[in-house]
């Protein structure tokens, strides 16, 4: 196989895979993807095939790779391939893999050189590979051919950038040796996404195809155009070799022979070739694994710590142990009792931040919903006066009364008190519903034992329903107590003598309290036309006399103030596309309420907000509209009532007396209802759960059946114990891997600004030249401060034997005269300030027919 350079990592990664798979987790090491980037026919696909050790990629001239190929290598015992678009079909013949790639490419892009960013996903299972992801990308092109669009270059660049922009992607910038390296699009793209050069490796291909007399030695020695991780030269198979079925092993042997025998590369043959490239990637992967392991160790240790307490509880666990079942039953019932009490009392450790529940919702029922139901009972003023008038006349009968009758007051009061029964019963129902919801929420912790949960819910709910009838009887008894005796000697009752004076005082107090704010809050006006901005949210302020709305809650910019005279409330159906709940305000005299609107539709987020706002409007004297037939009956009967001045005074007096006494009754009922429900329902249920629930559970059935685990709980316990032990094992394995892997430091930065420059540096080849000779080291003499020597204008008449191509230490200078070429820093030589004309240096210059790059650090044969 052709990827033996990476086989050292296979056992290491397999250990990690086993460690994580044993706890049911994926080995999220996120090993880097390897993407090959370069121009068309640069040899990218051949580099990938060398990693796999198989011929499976399409070959040819022009653009061959027309869709990204995401190649996942997976270590396995056998060798086969499968495509994501052909799930379940295994390919053991890699020629068929090539044909399938070609067919799938043509299916999406057509057969006429079209491209597509949709990747082909291929998995190769083999015992000779690492779990890596290799990406074969289309070559960068300049001119569209066939069906390719005009912006083919930009499309391919965008496609490449999607892959190489990821931090976990190693970039192999592939450049053919027979082209100008300074114009390498692959290096420029790599520089854009990896300016530090931490994940870019230069790959020089086609070294065997360079013109005679030229070589890429300076590039491969990282002198000409340096990269932080340097360059690696490879020699791929030619098309003739591929057509002749030359296998990859023979190609690697030929590559090795090429580097050992070539005079320009034989001194660095050990640093060249596909095995060396694989070795570099191997080390890169090893470094990545070592960098990733500390985070994994911390994560596993945190999971182990979280499971430690639960694992200690289950260690030595025996599901059929009677003592364990008894102990667990006691613990479950006790926990249920504690949770129920915490939810009611509001001291729970699990706080619901989404909606009200438990005691908070019951509190809202007591102090918002129940008072709202009482306020809704307040009848219309005209209807009340008409009832009082009828009562006075019916009591007097045929006689004309001189005094205001007490019986009329008592009859009206009793009729109003009877109306309290309905809201009181409704209050009990709402509290019961919330108690049952609380029981269900608390029983969620018993889901491990379905039978126990079912019995607990049934017993407690039955008890609550039993207490319901007693609570309702007690509430009705409170109303009957109020009806049994009308206490006109109550300290808060105004009395008959003060009724008239109270009436005038009430009118004054109402006028003085007109500016008292009843409620503030955000509401949406729902029926503003779209031409005027559509539905809009405003800050509303409701007082006893008016409804105002402002732009925001700072109340600086008032939009409108609407008087409450002749206003009523009306329910509005929620719109088909609207999620808000709506009610409306309208004028009973058919006048416009706001601008050209006969009614204003106000929207809230929830129905509870709507009810709360309606209660506030009721306190301000804005009542819901009645049915049409009730209005007609009221108008027809009201027209027949004729009242003399004496009767009007009597009606006004009784009206004030009734209002005063009903206020006393409402105050008493609002105070007694929460106390009655708390005593008979809530506190009693808490005591029942705490004292009697366990006894009812014992009498309900066999303890063994009650404490029978659900299948999900048994599976969860087994998985937890297995994960606990596997986590400990995984930590040991990771500790071993940390000590057996060795990482190498990242190479130091180099001057790679040449990649983004517009000016083109010299090509990668070394053509012969007859221009200025390279600078050489002059003799050490005394002179001014050392510095780089100036160019010497020496006569070419002084010849010198050729310098051997023996490798030597890096030189401080290169032989090209172009100043844009980056230089490898080294110790400067001391030079004299100048040489007299016509006197040559002690070392003659190089012969004019030699290549331009000469290493002055190598000793000359003439020294």
Plain-language structure description:
With 863 residues, the protein is of the alpha/beta class. Among the domains are: 39-165, P-loop containing nucleotide triphosphate hydrolases (Rossmann fold); 517-624, Roll (PH-domain like), CATH 2.30.29. Helices cover 44% and strands 11% of the residues. It is built from 22 helices and 15 strands. The strands form 2 sheets. It has an 8-stranded mixed β-sheet with strand order 3-4-2-5-1-6-7-8, with helices on both faces. The protein has a 7-stranded antiparallel β-sheet with strand order 12-11-10-9-15-14-13. The two termini are 49 Å apart. Mean pLDDT is 74; it is low at 1-6, 506-513, 628-642, 757-823, 828-832 and 846-863.
CATH topology of the domain at 39-165: Rossmann fold
Shape verdict: elongated
Residue share in helices?
40-55%
Distance between the termini: 49 Å
Stretches where pLDDT is under 50 for at least 5 consecutive residues are 1-6, 506-513, 628-642, 757-823, 828-832, 846-863
Gyration radius from CA atoms, angstroms: 47 Å
What about the largest sheet? 8 strands, mixed
Number of DSSP E strands:
15
Global structural class: alpha/beta
Can you say what the CATH homologous superfamily of the domain at 39-165 is?
Answer: P-loop containing nucleotide triphosphate hydrolases
Percentage beta strand? 5-15%
Number of DSSP helices?
22
Spatial order of the strands in the main sheet?
3-4-2-5-1-6-7-8
């Amino acid at each position: 196989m052709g990827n033996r350079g990476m086989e050292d990592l296979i056992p290491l990664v397999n250990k990690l895979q086993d460690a994580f798979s044993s706890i049911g987790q994926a080995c999220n090491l996120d090993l880097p993807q390897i993407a090959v980037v370069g121009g068309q026919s640069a040899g990218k696909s051949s580099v990938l095939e060398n990693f796999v050790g198989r011929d499976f990629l399409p070959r040819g001239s022009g653009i061959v790779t027309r869709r990204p190929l995401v190649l996942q290598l997976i270590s396995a015992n056998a060798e086969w391939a499968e495509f994501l678009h052909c799930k379940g079909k295994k390919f053991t013949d890699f020629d068929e893999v090539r044909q399938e790639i070609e067919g799938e490419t043509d299916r999406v892009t057509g057969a006429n050189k079209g491209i597509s960013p949709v990747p082909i996903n291929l998995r190769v299972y083999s015992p000779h590979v690492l779990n890596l992801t290799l990406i074969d990308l289309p070559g960068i092109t300049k001119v569209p051919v066939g069906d390719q669009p005009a912006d083919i270059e930009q499309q391919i660049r965008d496609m490449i950038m999607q892959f190489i922009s990821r931090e976990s992607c190693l970039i192999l910038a592939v450049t053919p040796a027979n082209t100008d390296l300074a114009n390498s699009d692959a290096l420029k793209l790599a520089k854009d996404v990896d300016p530090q050069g931490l994940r870019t490796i230069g790959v020089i291909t086609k070294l065997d195809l360079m013109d005679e007399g030229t070589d890429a030695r300076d590039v491969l020695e990282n002198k000409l155009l340096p990269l932080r991780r340097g360059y690696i030269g490879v020699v791929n198979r030619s098309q003739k070799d591929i057509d002749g079925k030359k296998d990859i092993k023979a190609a690697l042997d030929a590559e090795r022979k090429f580097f050992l025998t070539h005079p320009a590369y034989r001194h660095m043959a050990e640093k060249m070739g596909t095995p060396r490239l694989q070795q570099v990637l191997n080390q890169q992967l090893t470094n990545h694994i070592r960098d990733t392991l500390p985070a994994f160790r911390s994560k596993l240790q945190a999971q182990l710590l979280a499971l430690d307490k639960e694992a200690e509880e289950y260690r030595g666990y025996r599901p059929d142990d009677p003592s364990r079942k008894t102990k667990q039953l006691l613990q479950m019932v006790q926990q249920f009792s504690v949770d129920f009490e915490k939810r009611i009392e509001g001291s729970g450790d699990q706080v619901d931040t989404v909606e009200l529940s438990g005691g908070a919702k019951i509190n809202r029922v007591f102090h918002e919903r129940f008072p709202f139901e009482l306020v809704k009972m307040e009848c219309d003023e005209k209807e009340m006066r008409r009832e009082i008038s009828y009562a006075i006349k019916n009591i007097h009968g045929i006689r004309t009364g001189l005094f205001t009758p007490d019986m009329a007051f008592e009859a009206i009061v009793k009729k109003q008190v009877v109306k309290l029964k309905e809201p009181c019963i409704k209050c009990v129902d709402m509290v019961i519903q919330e108690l049952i919801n609380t029981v269900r929420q608390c029983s969620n912790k018993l889901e491990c034992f379905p039978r126990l949960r079912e019995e607990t819910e049934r017993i407690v709910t039955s008890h609550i329903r039993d207490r319901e009838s007693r609570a309702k009887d007690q509430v009705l008894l409170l109303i009957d107590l109020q009806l049994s005796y009308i206490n006109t000697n109550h300290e808060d009752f105004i009395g008959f003598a003060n009724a008239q004076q109270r009436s005038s005082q009430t009118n004054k107090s109402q006028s003085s309290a007109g500016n008292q704010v009843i409620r503030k809050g955000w509401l949406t006006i729902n029926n503003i036309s779209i031409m005027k901005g559509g539905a809009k949210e405003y800050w509303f302020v409701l007082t006893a006399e008016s409804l105002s709305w402002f732009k925001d809650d700072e109340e600086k910019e008032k939009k409108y103030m609407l008087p409450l005279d002749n206003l009523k409330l009306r329910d509005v159906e929620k719109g088909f596309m609207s999620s808000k709940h709506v009610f409306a305000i309208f004028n009973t005299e058919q006048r416009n309420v706001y601008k050209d609107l006969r009614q204003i539709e106000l929207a809230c987020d929830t129905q509870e907000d709507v009810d709360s706002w309606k209660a506030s409007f009721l306190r301000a004297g804005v009542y819901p509209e009645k049915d049409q037939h009730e209005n007609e009956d009221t108008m027809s009967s009201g027209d027949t009532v004729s009242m003399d001045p004496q009767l009007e005074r009597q009606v006004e007096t009784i009206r004030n007396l009734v209002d005063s006494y009903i206020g006393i009754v409402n105050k008493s009922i609002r105070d007694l209802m929460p106390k009655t429900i708390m005593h008979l329902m809530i506190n009693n249920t808490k005591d029942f759960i705490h004292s009697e629930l366990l006894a009812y559970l014992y009498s309900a059935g066999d303890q063994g059946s009650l404490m029978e685990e659900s299948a999900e709980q048994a599976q969860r316990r087994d998985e937890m114990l297995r994960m606990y032990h596997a986590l400990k094992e995984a930590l040991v394995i990771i500790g071993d891997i940390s000590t057996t892997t060795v990482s190498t430091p990242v190479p130091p930065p180099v001057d790679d600004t040449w990649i983004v420059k517009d000016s083109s540096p010299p090509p990668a080849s070394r053509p012969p030249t007859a221009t200025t000779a390279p600078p050489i080291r002059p003799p050490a003499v005394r002179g001014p401060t050392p510095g780089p020597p100036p160019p010497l204008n020496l006569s070419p008449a002084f010849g010198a034997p050729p310098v051997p191509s023996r490798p030597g230490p890096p030189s401080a200078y290169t032989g090209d005269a172009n100043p844009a070429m980056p230089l490898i820093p080294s110790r400067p030589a001391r030079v004299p300030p100048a040489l007299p004309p016509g006197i040559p240096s002690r070392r003659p210059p190089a012969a004019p027919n030699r290549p331009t790059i000469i290493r002055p650090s190598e000793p000359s044969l003439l020294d």
